[in-house]
Amino acid sequence: MNKKMKTILKTTGFTASVLGAIGAFNKIYYLLSKKGNDNRCGEYYNSQYGKIYYKVKGNGKPLLVLHSMYPSFCMSEWDESINELSAKYKVYSIDMLGYGMSDKPKMTYTTFIYASVIKDFIENVIQKPTGLLSANNSGSVAITAAKVYSDKISKLMLVSPNGINDKMASNNDKFKRFIIELPLFGTAYYNIKTSKSAISKFIKKYGFFFKENNRNDIINKFFSSAHSEGGNARYALASFETNYMNMDINPYISDIKIPICVAWGEENKLNPISNMDKFRELLPLGRYYIFEKTKLFPHIENSIEFSNAAEDFFR
After folding, report:
1. Domain of 180?
2. Which whole-number Å values give the CA distances from 15 to 10, 22, 59, 186, 189, in the listed order?
3. pLDDT digit of tens for each residue in the chain (315 aa)?
4. 216-226 vs 3-34: helix crossing angle, rounded to 10
5. 252, CA 20 to 30 Å: which among 165, 167, 229, 298?
6. Any alpha helices (H) in the chain, and if so which ranges?
7. Distance between CA 232 and CA 162 in Å, rounded?
8. In a domain, 106, yes or no
9. Residue 171 domain-assigned (yes or no)
């Protein structure tokens, strides 16, 4: 056997060992993270893109809440506010397509696809116009839905919405998206990005103003939800990381005719409160709330005051 052939065999063997190790890591990690994660007390709606997991609580006028769309996030973000809001409203909470216990199809995830899913959910599950409440970077989805499907949404409340200064996807992002979508490497990358330590680091840096609010129960819920299914969650992550979920909502805001309320955590570092001033310019007749000493989660960190503001707006 010549030297060149030996080198090829060694390289092939090494590559196979690495791929095998990555595959084993993904399988073991999924099994460990899934442990104790069969807490399905909700229902499923079969949308045109896949099943959407949702829960309903309370009675009264309908209110649909959308969670933030950072890696690992899910409907649990709204648990505390829902406890308050469900006293007066029938609150629907969903795991967005590609997140939590909802389906995770192989596709490019965009704002328009999410807006279409929201419209179909309102038509087929809620079956009447509803109030819509979104958190952080699901804001562009809520705004797009309110603009394109205006007859489905009665009022719109946005918590530090994105879309004012978002970076848009470009051709340069296609290769990165391709890499993240690869079965072995992409799944391993997803597992690293949604590990308990990664979620904890994100929450501690951006989530709460007061350190004592960096609660393990929220971290555990996000971690558990992020690994409720197999590796297909990498597709939504790929679209998120390459800006395909982003949307420029500047031309939409002034065209929306329904009442709009904007709330902001004063200390938000991911989406600074200076962007609220730009919203005021685009929407001078909107209602605005600033929650002092909160960051990404005024609806968690100051849930009672936030819920009071939401109840007053949606009544």
Report:
1. 43-314
2. 9, 11, 57, 16, 18
3. 554 444 433 443 433 344 444 444 455 444 554 544 445 689 999 999 999 999 999 999 999 999 999 999 999 999 999 999 999 999 999 999 999 999 999 999 999 999 999 999 999 999 999 999 999 999 999 999 999 999 999 999 999 999 998 888 988 888 999 999 999 889 999 999 999 999 999 999 999 998 776 678 899 999 998 988 766 899 999 999 999 999 999 999 989 999 999 999 999 999 999 999 999 999 999 999 999 999 999 999 999 999 999 999 999
4. 130
5. 298
6. 3-34, 79-85, 111-121, 139-148, 174-181, 183-193, 196-202, 216-226, 234-241, 250-253, 274-282, 298-301, 303-314
7. 25
8. yes
9. yes
- Within-domain flag for 217: yes
Q: State the chain's maximal CA–CA distance in angstroms.
A: 81
Task: Look up the pTM and report it.
Answer: 0.88
Separation CA 100–CA 74 (nearest Å): 5
For 142-197, what is each residue's pLDDT tens digit?
999 999 999 999 999 999 999 998 888 988 888 999 999 999 889 999 999 999 99
How far apart CA 311 and CA 77 sit, in angstroms, is: 18
Q: What is the count of structural domains for the chain? A: 1
Report the alpha-carbon distance of residue 76 to residue 170 in Å, rounded: 32
CATH of the domain at 58: 3.40.50.1820
At 10, list the tokens: 């060694």
Let me know if residue 18 belongs to a domain: no
β 61-66/51-57 pair status: unpaired
> Angle CA(163)–CA(168)–CA(169) in degrees, nearest 5?
140
Give long-range contacts, CB 8 A cutoff, 24+ apart: 27-35. 29/191, 29/227, 30/191, 30/227, 30/230, 30/231, 33/191, 33/223, 33/224, 33/226, 33/227, 34/227, 34/228
